[in-house]
């Protein structure tokens, strides 16, 4: 297993979909290897740039005036492992949300809903060399094509929220690594 590098890019950046590609974190943020980068910016993904075939066939699109984006690239894991990581990350986002808001958040698969409105978007896909992840948390959901809610509506600061998410996923990643190496194999002598 590889170390997980995390970074919060403080400058606004638009997410349009093609950023979900191999070595984007390396070319844009100098993240060498497995990592997750967070940034805040508009989300504007056309139907043609969606990687979810169900959404493409439905002619869906994604839009929000501002989102807290998490982009990840993972080397040495398979698609199923990163889908589980995506679900863990969504659960962490829900936990942090609960600590910062009295509003009720519900997880349905890889999405979060508050008051029946969509708070997040997320997807995991494969490239020839890695697994790729995007999770977007609405900040200002103005223009969203679905009924949505944002962190601004819940009085949550996206910068501190995003930093806490990065800290938590890094801690979980390290905990999983330790759990994999600390155990004695079954059948090994007790000496």
Question: What does this molecule look like?
Answer:
- The protein has a single domain, classed as BirA Bifunctional Protein, domain 2.
- It contains 4 helices and 8 strands; from the N terminus they run E-H-E-H-E-H-E-E-E-E-E-H.
- The model has no long low-confidence stretch (mean pLDDT 94).
- With 191 residues, the protein is an alpha+beta fold.
- A hairpin with a 2-residue loop joins strand 4 and strand 5.
Instruction: Report the principal-axis shape.
Output: globular
Contiguous helical run count:
4
- CATH fold category name: BirA Bifunctional Protein, domain 2
CATH-defined architecture = 2-Layer Sandwich
Largest sheet: 5 strands, mixed
The helix content is 25-40%
Q: CATH superfamily, please?
A: Bira Bifunctional Protein, Domain 2
Count of the domains:
1
Structure keywords:
single chain, 191 residues, alpha+beta, BirA Bifunctional Protein, domain 2, 5-stranded mixed sheet, 3-stranded antiparallel sheet, globular
In short:
The protein has 191 residues and is an alpha+beta fold. Helices cover 30% and strands 29% of the residues.
Write the layout of secondary structure elements.
Layout: E1 5-8, H1 24-29, E2 35-45, H2 53-57, E3 62-74, H3 79-100, E4 105-108, E5 111-114, E6 117-118, E7 120-126, E8 131-140, H4 158-181
Parallel strand pairs: 1-2
Antiparallel strand pairs: 2-3, 3-8, 4-5, 5-6, 7-8
């Amino acid at each position: 297993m590889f170390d997980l590098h995390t970074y919060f890019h403080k400058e606004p950046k638009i997410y349009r979909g093609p950023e979900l590609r191999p070595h984007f974190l390396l070319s844009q943020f100098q993240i060498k290897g497995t990592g997750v980068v967070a940034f805040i910016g508009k989300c504007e993904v056309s139907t043609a740039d969606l990687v979810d075939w169900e959404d493409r066939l439905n002619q869906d699109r994604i839009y929000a005036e501002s989102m807290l984006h998490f982009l990840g690239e993972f080397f040495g894991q398979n698609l199923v492992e990163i889908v589980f990581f995506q679900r863990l990350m969504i659960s962490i986002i829900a936990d942090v949300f609960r600590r910062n808001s009295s509003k009720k958040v519900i997880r349905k698969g890889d999405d979060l809903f508050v008051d029946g409105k969509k708070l997040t978007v997320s997807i995991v896909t494969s490239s020839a060399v890695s697994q790729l992840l995007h999770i977007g948390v609405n900040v200002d959901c103005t223009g969203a094509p679905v009924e949505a809610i944002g962190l601004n509506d819940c009085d949550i600061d996206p910068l501190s929220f995003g930093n806490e998410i990065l800290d938590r996923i890094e801690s979980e990643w390290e905990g999983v690594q330790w759990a994999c190496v600390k155990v004695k194999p079954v059948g090994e002598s007790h000496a």
